[in-house]
Amino acid sequence: MAPGYEVVRPARERGLDLGTSRRSKEYYHHRHRDLERRRDNGRSKGRDLSNGYSHGRSPHQPPRRRPSGRTEDSGPSEVSSGSGSGEPLLKDKDKERRENGVPGASKEDAKTSPSKKRKHSPVTRDRNDSKLQARDAVSGIREINPVAAEILMYHPHPLLDLSSPSSIAGVHSPMNLDVSVDSQKAQGHEEIRIMDEQEEEYPTTRNILKSRWADADVEEEKVFVPKKRVSLVDSIERGSIKKVTSPELGEVLVYNSVGSSSRSSGSGVVQGSANRNLEVDMGDSMDVDKEADDDSPAGHRLYSDSESDVCRSRSPDHTLSPHRCINMLQGCRTVDEFERLNTINEGTYGIVFRVRDKRTNEIVALKKVKMEKEKEGFPLTSLREINILLSFHHPSIVEVKEVVVGSGDKDIFMVMEYMEHDLKGVMETMKQPYSQSEVKCLMLQLLEGVKYLHDNWVLHRDLKTSNILMNNRGELKICDFGLSRQYGSPSKPYTQLVVTLWYRAPELLLGAKEYSTAIDMWSLGCIMAELLSKGPLFNGKSEIDQLDKIFKTLGTPNEDIWPGYSKLPGATIKFGKQTFNRLRHKFRAVSFTGGPTLSEAGFDLLNRLLTYDPEKRISADDALNHEWFCELPLPRSKDFMPTFPALNEQDRRFKKHMKSPDPLEEQLMKEQGSIADHGLFD
Ligand SMILES: Nc1ncnc2c1ncn2[C@@H]1O[C@H](COP(=O)(O)OP(=O)(O)OP(=O)(O)O)[C@@H](O)[C@H]1O
């Protein structure tokens, strides 16, 4: 790695630090008023919550809106040493016991009223009705079809909108894609139906040559695109897409008949598209942006209502999605319309370039979908990523502007907004870790992005610092949705081979076949710790080593603190017994040795993110309302975040850093025998 860059802190920030500028005074006055208001609210809410709700929950947290309400009682990894709200400080030993919770708190925790336990999926299943119902944050219950997305493409009319939530969202599922087109020309062409994907089974042995989404029915996982095709568009036109088995984004139905083409009732015209002829079923679709809008910011967070305010401002325009379309009538643009400036990085699934759009002069990032591992077709992982990113619009999610095709017939590129760095690269160049107020700014943006994903039924499944992009305006955006997928309720078995090892939740490591949004929250806990300490929290070399590191720090879980733990396949493995949560040793309230510091409230949030029992692990929504974000030091404004020379103006492919192999690499290493430990379940 090149020598570390100095953090370039803007002069205005120095002013803020000295507390002398008028702006900073206004800022603190404003924040103080805001805090006072929130404390008042909190006091009244606190009284409401006092029965049966243990310490550590922010008084600002709104009543839970999830249908089943188990309390978030504390497990060994989640028991805080105080709420940060006036609770007397404990002596170290006592604190250690409380943080750990195994001997003491866990028993209490085990008494948690089942009626108050948090349910992860915001979906309820009505036993008398095969349809699922989702409780919308504002508008109440919505019907959900668990096997969701259908993309209806009317062959050969080459018009496809993969763009807006309103067009992508299907009948019941947030991720449905139901595109109908005027298909007068569609007669006489064969029907190609891409079937519902079998859920990913628990993987036994995976072969790297196969799609990593594939299990027994690997063939069902693919969308075949013959090699000779000119483009994705062309492939679709020629009926080369044979099938999709995903119940979600990748599920494609291609019809050729006019009559079957349209779900016409309530259809509207896609707006903002280059081509406005595309009719989509508006009535049935879930409007992601509307939902984001409905999920009004009111009442659950700090708000930035001035330019100088903290970073929690939700830009109002993200609710007004610019509907991005692949206009298949005109075809995709080709990559020739971009001038290559440099290669940024090469991941497992794609190579990312910094390029200039010759038409607009805009600097953008191009991610080339790697096809070589997918011998027979267009990788479903990429199709999912493209669909998700085209349909989502949020300030904390990287924007995909369009899809372009390579001049060499077969390559597909995603055109993304360009970001100067990723968090991993930034941390490698920093000499000092981020301060608490900077971490708050980053965590808030991250949590908002993850909340948006979870509200829209998507699990990211690979949150890590290299998948979090940053720019020099202090903005953070989540990228790399190659492993992400739609989720629903009731839980179904999914593959555990997700999430890069260091950020992988214990339930995945222990072989749980069902999991939900909590896996992303664990990753956020690891990221928060990494931001504070500038190093990975649990850098295991194998699954067992990873579990060992987690247990040594957070304490060995047991049935008391994690009901159901003993039934997990990995629970039979004997690990050394660690009876205390030692996380506080890594993040002291005050450090005289230069180690990372974290307030009681911050530590409470970290513990809640790193809670063993996924049912009790804090949700993104609740984390956003955690008191840590309301206490001093307040979250730093994005405007005052440190800036760095643009790392992505360099070719970063050959810079080798300590990194955790991602799930596909991990599998490859296992197949090659280069990981001594073959994992728990191989
Ligand atoms: N929009 C963007 N702007 C700038 N750089 C980007 C952008 N998207 C990705 N990158 C860079 O490229 C790297 C790899 O991107 P990405 O994670 O999407 O690819 P991948 O093949 O899926 O990687 P992985 O092996 O981590 O799964 C990122 O870590 C980041 O440094």
Describe how the helices and strands are arranged.
Elements: H1 11-18, H2 22-49, E1 69-70, H3 92-100, H4 105-110, E2 117-118, E3 123-125, E4 132-136, E5 140-144, E6 151-154, H5 165-168, E7 179-180, E8 192-193, H6 232-237, E9 252-255, E10 267-269, E11 279-281, H7 288-294, E12 338-346, E13 350-357, E14 363-369, H8 380-391, E15 400-405, E16 412-417, E17 421-422, H9 423-429, H10 436-455, E18 458-459, E19 468-470, E20 476-478, E21 485-486, H11 506-509, H12 518-533, H13 543-554, H14 583-586, H15 600-609, H16 620-624, H17 663-672
Helix pairs in contact: 10-12, 12-15
The structure holds adenosine-5'-triphosphate.
Adenosine-5'-triphosphate binds at residues 344-345, 347-350, 352, 365, 367, 398, 416-419, 422, 466-467, 469, 479-480, 482, 648, 662.
- The helix content, as a percent range, equals 10-25%
- What is the overall pLDDT average? 63
Major sheet: arrangement of strands: 12-13-14-16-15
Distance between the amino and carboxyl termini: 35 Å
Global Rg: 25 Å
Biased composition (Low complexity): 74-88, 259-273
Biased composition (Acidic residues): 281-296
Biased composition (Basic and acidic residues): 23-48, 89-111, 123-134
Domain Protein kinase: 338-629
Mind explaining what this structure looks like?
- The chain has 682 residues and is α+β, with helices and mostly antiparallel strands.
- The protein contains 17 helices and 21 strands.
- It has helices spanning 11-18, 22-49, 92-100, 105-110, 165-168, 232-237, 288-294, 380-391, 423-429, 436-455, 506-509, 518-533, 543-554, 583-586, 600-609, 620-624, 663-672, and strands at 69-70, 117-118, 123-125, 132-136, 140-144, 151-154, 179-180, 192-193, 252-255, 267-269, 279-281, 338-346, 350-357, 363-369, 400-405, 412-417, 421-422, 458-459, 468-470, 476-478, 485-486.
- The strands form seven sheets. The chain has a five-stranded antiparallel beta sheet with strand order 12-13-14-16-15, covered by helices on one side. The chain has a three-stranded antiparallel beta sheet with strand order 3-4-5, with no helix packed on it. A three-stranded mixed beta sheet has the order 6-9-8, with no helix packed on it.
- A hairpin with a 3-residue loop joins strand 4 (132-136) and strand 5 (140-144).
- The longest helix has 28 residues, at 22-49.
- The radius of gyration is 25 Å and the shape is globular.
- The structure holds adenosine-5'-triphosphate.
- The site of adenosine-5'-triphosphate has 23 residues, from strand 12, strand 13, strand 14 and strand 16.
- This is Protein kinase domain-containing protein.
- It holds the Pfam family Pkinase.
- Belongs to the protein kinase superfamily. CMGC Ser/Thr protein kinase family. CDC2/CDKX subfamily.
